[in-house]
Amino acid sequence: MNRVVVPVLTSAGLIGGFATARATGARWSGGVVLAAVGATAATLVAQRGGALRATAVTGAYVVAFAASHPLAKRLGAWPSVLAVTAGTAVVAAALAER
Fold first, then answer.
1. Average pLDDT per run of 10 along the chain, which is 98 residues long?
2. CA 28 to CA 89: how far, in whole Å?
3. How many whole angstroms separate alpha carbon 24 and alpha carbon 37?
4. Residue boundaries of the structural domains of the chain
5. Cα–Cα distance, 54 to 46 (Å, whole number)
6. What is the distance between the alpha carbons of residues 54 and 10, in angstroms, rounded to a whole number?
7. Are 98 and 48 spatial neighbours (Cβ–Cβ below 8 Å)?
8. Of all helices (H) and strands (E), which one includes residue 66?
């Protein structure tokens, strides 16, 4: 079940966080969405996959968020968010469970 739920959560966090920040004009609001959904995904991975896998998924999530900013200068905002989201979903699916 985590192999489906966790990638959906990481995708929702990255896309939803960006969409929230853009819609509200308040970057912090996107950060709240990003953090809350990321924490939920990490908790699910830790329960079924262990702490090491949860750390790896969280790391991929944070790196994706950080990488989307410079990537946006080359691709544009939405294409950048979608690209890092796809990469994070693959990592999350691979590491979600033992």
1. 87 97 96 97 93 96 96 96 96 86
2. 23
3. 18
4. 2-95
5. 5
6. 12
7. yes
8. helix 51-75
